[in-house]
Amino acid sequence: MKAPIISVTDVRKSYGRGANRFDALRGVTLEIFEGESVAIVGKSGSGKSTLMHVLALLDQPTSGSIELEGVDTTTLRGRALNRTRNKTFGFVFQQFFLTAGSSVLDNVVLPMKIAGVGRAERKRRGMAALSQLELADKARNKAVDLSGGQKQRSVIARALVNDPRIIFADEPTGNLDTSTGGVVEDILFELNREKGITLIIVTHDEDLAARCDRRIQIRDGLIIDDEAVAA
Ligand SMILES: Nc1ncnc2c1ncn2[C@@H]1O[C@H](COP(=O)(O)OP(=O)(O)O)[C@@H](O)[C@H]1O
Ligand SMILES: [Mg+2]
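Above: the input record for the complex with adenosine-5'-diphosphate. Below: its predicted structure, written as tokens.
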């Protein structure tokens, strides 16, 4: 079997200290393989977002290890950490807003700006990503003027510009109506199928979880179920 792209061993994450300490993850071990689509489900407050943040190297665990392609990520700091995150991951998170007053294109090229990609190349790749999401005609519009579905498609375009290996999505369809949410889901699964991008999706939506290869259920900071989804 192939080596895992992410390997998590006994990860714990506590917030606060002393009497205020809260153990949000209490010993999570799992492996994720390249090309998988993985749903992380569980009740509100169960630790899903905390797990996603540590998997995506946005937050450090209190203890335990996270390996990315066999490399222990605790040794990554500062620039090396930012660079790894920026080139390997794409994010479709509700809290990573589009900048409302900026153009759609300026929003989409931001990860490339961070990566130090030159202006002409940024524009070329930004427009290619927008075309892929059928938003090329909105490139010059302000992000604030887009519909909910168009905003989420712009967020996906932004997640794609650095050619990520893994897309992390936290409730990607949470704020969308059913049919718009369905379109956004279709796009994510098409990227998974056609480009082999690994999907890690936090969701309350069991229908979305059922479309993934694998469903991991979290309760009170522990994995209580991890199984392949029947096709
Ligand atoms: N920064 C924080 N400080 C203190 N407690 C937190 C913080 N972030 C999350 N928590 C707590 O950790 C638990 C898990 O949160 P979270 O991972 O956001 O759950 P979920 O995404 O499953 O709703 C919750 O009880 C939450 O209140
Ligand atoms: Mg959450």
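Notes for the reader.
The beta strands are 6-15, 22-32, 37-41, 63-68, 71-72, 89-93, 166-170, 198-202, 214-219, 222-228.
The helical segments are 48-55, 78-88, 104-115, 119-132, 148-160, 178-195, 206-211.
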